[in-house]
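Researcher: We're reviewing a set of sequences before deciding which ones to prioritize for further study. For each one, I'd like a predicted 3D structure that I can look through quickly. This is LysR family transcriptional regulator. If possible, include the structure in token form so it fits the rest of the review sheet.
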Amino acid sequence: MRIEQLIYLIEIAKCGSISSAAEQLHISQPGISQAIDSLEEEMNTKLFQRSKRLGTKPTEDGKKAIKIAKEILGKFEELKEVSNAESDQLNGTLSFSVIPSVCMSVLPKTLAAYKDRFPLVKIELTVQGSLQIESDVLNGKIDIGIISNGNYEQKNWEHSEKLSFEKLHDFKTLACVGQQSPLSRNDSVSPEEILNYPIVISNSDYKMYHKITALLRKYGEPNILLTTGNTEASKRIIAEGLGIGFYTDLELKNDPYVLKGKIIPLQISGEEKRSAFGWIKLKDQYLSTTSREFIKVLKSTICVDF
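Model: Here's the predicted structure for LysR family transcriptional regulator, in token form for your review sheet.
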């Protein structure tokens, strides 16, 4: 039994086909097939059921083997990192995604501190909605993700069996209007009042979209002017008075539009429950030192700034 066989085993289960796994791992399909056949012979059991219609699915023995293989590879990674234990020698890749509110608030200081301490680590970062980040972590495209959990209870989270979520900080959702809006003189706005105006909101990949539309639909149908993942574009539209937008208090803390008075944040009356953002990973995945150290730096930044 070889380490690469365990890697192939996990990748086939993740991709659902041998050809896709071979493509992801940049090896030949016959090579990966032969390695799995050899592993099945050595273990004297069938690890996958192959079907043209359903693809390649792990058997019950295969599922058990995959779980153990992940544990073994986790320990193998720990072993490789023993010689890399000194902080100034830490290298490797940190692959993660964050939601825009984190990117616009705590992330810049976090990255600066992290790169100052670990200059040899290569960072692969994307900014996406929580739902896409969850999908990417589940599919192994990224190591960790920083998401909003909306205002859902953890026990009702659909991915709670496969993903672990650790809360990092609470936040509150605010409605934002332009300085010329009639609402700008108020401290708060009700959902019924919001329905009288067009709204500018993140697209459906973001939990903010589902949270706000669900709230407003308790009172009527919202007039959605624009859905976008472009935070800067939506703020310009809001500043021009074309619609009401929605952001977290976290990302508005030092926002230039707010500081210059171009956008006025308002409390949403009747929406008192705070949400939280936190980090996620696969429950059965070993967390690399690069990821663990990043989470430490992130927590430290949050403690100092928030």
